UniProtKB/TrEMBL annotation:
<keyword id="KW-0653">Protein transport</keyword>
<feature type="domain" description="Exocyst complex subunit Exo70 C-terminal">
    <location>
        <begin position="240"/>
        <end position="600"/>
    </location>
</feature>
<dbReference type="GO" id="GO:0015031">
    <property type="term" value="P:protein transport"/>
</dbReference>
<dbReference type="GO" id="GO:0006887">
    <property type="term" value="P:exocytosis"/>
</dbReference>
<dbReference type="Pfam" id="PF03081">
    <property type="entry name" value="Exo70_C"/>
</dbReference>
<comment type="similarity">
    <text>Belongs to the EXO70 family.</text>
</comment>
<feature type="compositionally biased region" description="Low complexity">
    <location>
        <begin position="608"/>
        <end position="623"/>
    </location>
</feature>
<dbReference type="InterPro" id="IPR016159">
    <property type="entry name" value="Cullin_repeat-like_dom_sf"/>
</dbReference>
<feature type="region of interest" description="Disordered">
    <location>
        <begin position="608"/>
        <end position="629"/>
    </location>
</feature>
<protein>
    <recommendedName>
        <fullName>Exocyst subunit Exo70 family protein</fullName>
    </recommendedName>
</protein>
<comment type="function">
    <text>Component of the exocyst complex.</text>
</comment>
<keyword id="KW-0813">Transport</keyword>
<dbReference type="GO" id="GO:0005546">
    <property type="term" value="F:phosphatidylinositol-4,5-bisphosphate binding"/>
</dbReference>
<dbReference type="GO" id="GO:0000145">
    <property type="term" value="C:exocyst"/>
</dbReference>
<dbReference type="InterPro" id="IPR004140">
    <property type="entry name" value="Exo70"/>
</dbReference>
<keyword id="KW-0268">Exocytosis</keyword>
<dbReference type="InterPro" id="IPR046364">
    <property type="entry name" value="Exo70_C"/>
</dbReference>
Amino acid sequence: MPRKGMRSLFFSPKASASSLSQNYPSTPARISSDASMERILTVSESVIGKWNSDASAYARVTSLFYENRREARDFIRCVNELQRCMHSLVAEDANSEKLVRGQNLMEVAMKRLQKEFYQILSMNRAHLDPESVSARSSRASARSSVSDYEDDDVLAEDDIRIAGESISEVEDVSNVAMADLRAIAECMISSGYAKECVKIYKIIRKSIVDEGIYKLGVEKMSSSHIQKMDWNSMELRINNWLSGVKIAVKTLFNGERILCDHVFASSDSIRESCFAEITREGAQILFGFPEHVAKIGKKKASPEKVFRLLDMYTAISGQWPDIESIFSFESTSAVLSQAIASLIRLSESVRAMLTEFEATIHKDSSKSPVPGGGVHPLTMRVTDYVTLLADYSNVLADILAGQPPPSKSSLPESYFDTSDSDDFPEPAISLRFAWLILVLLCKLDGKAKQHKEVSLSYLFLANNLQHIVNKVRTSNVKYLLGDEWVASHEAKVKQFAANYERLGWDLVVGSLPEDPTAAMPVEEAKERFRRFNASFEQAHRKQSVCVVQDSKLRDEIKVSIARKVVGAYTEFYDANRAAWRGERNLVRYAPEDVGNYLSDLFFGSVGSGSSSSLSSTSSTSHSRPLRSR
């Protein structure tokens, strides 16, 4: 005999004959002949009785559906015939002896089917795992591709063999198990035993879903628990969640929906209630985690941690069509509400963090000038942050849609494409990025004044703006700000570089005559050489510490300076040979020496803060005294 615990799970209480009219409400085809009814009852006693666990040791240890699938199909057909017979008996005489016999047989059959249903669910956990089930093309195909056990819709053994030729063994077993479950469920539901069937299904399948959620590293946590966690621990949880959420949606919940829709295809209300009860708790835990993180993140997380929140927002919003489709039932609306609540909380936290990030730019109080007029650490931090943000431009567009963008009037004229007009306003996301960069540029204007040499201030601005332009041009920020923005700011870089050249090297150029090709009196030429030596040495000494980190800009500045200085000096040098011939101490530099010294500039000298390799190269070049060769 089965254990008591098993009986309480499998077996339902006997229904009285007077309750049969409720269990069997109506049927389209009644059996009117007493002989036919007797024949059906006799056949049922033989077929069903064979599998009565209370009367047969064989039935207790053998599975009907595993032992002989054809016999299992006959068993289902027999129960359906018995059900039709009992409908007819209820209509004729609710107290007939035949009805009592039929009810007793039906109870034996339902006990058997409950046991088979449980065994199929339990023994096929591996084949009915969500991944195997979700591999089916769609819920619609799942509801129609594998038929039930009715006369015209029987999945025959030949059909299974043919299907097995085109699908893997695992999928084959999965299809068979799903077909068996559906056949049993439809038989039990139509016989008035839906409650018993559903109870078994919910217990087993919910345990699988809950186990799946746990294995994905997602567990139920309160806000107070999360609030006590340090960021490293929280980030580990976030990474687990990010890895698991796609699997949970695409495989776990989708597979469970497919299976539920298939098994209970005959009843919309049952498949809805089953799916809701099985998945609701796990789904709310899954989609509730980002809301907890967002609440805490808004208070504790620094702006740099915004990317984890954006990752979570992307994970939910990117799968929203699937989430909405899977949890489309009214009874699972709480799951959608939870997912939406998390998106709202994440949006609020992201906006708060972006506001805080802008504030950190304003608050930057570093007073030390960058050695050599190089790229400021603030520039690097902000551009790195902004370019990473641009990778999330699609979700940021949704998030920032709820926050008014900076007024376009607050931005410099022609900051964007000149073709822009009120009829084609810039997107809010573009204005937000433009504003962040403008805040940085304004801050850099102030930091440029920290340099004592005005020429170095302009080189600082050129370096930093070039770094910003490079970052914009090679990232998604370019698509937000546009080509016109890049072109206009490249022009500003050239303007800053020209101002640097003018202030840093005009004294050298001015030491030479306006017409360097004209021969001069010897004494006047000598004085010009002395002035050039002094001005060049002074300019070289000041500019030798300068840094230009962008190679293209560095070469452009060198070529421009060389064109002005070396070109004019070469012409003057050649035109006034008489003045310096035999005067080795008068002419310290041949034209090629000047060119060589200029070519070594803008790598920075030792201690300037540039990289060690550049510093060592520059140090080697300038450690020798300046002299002619």
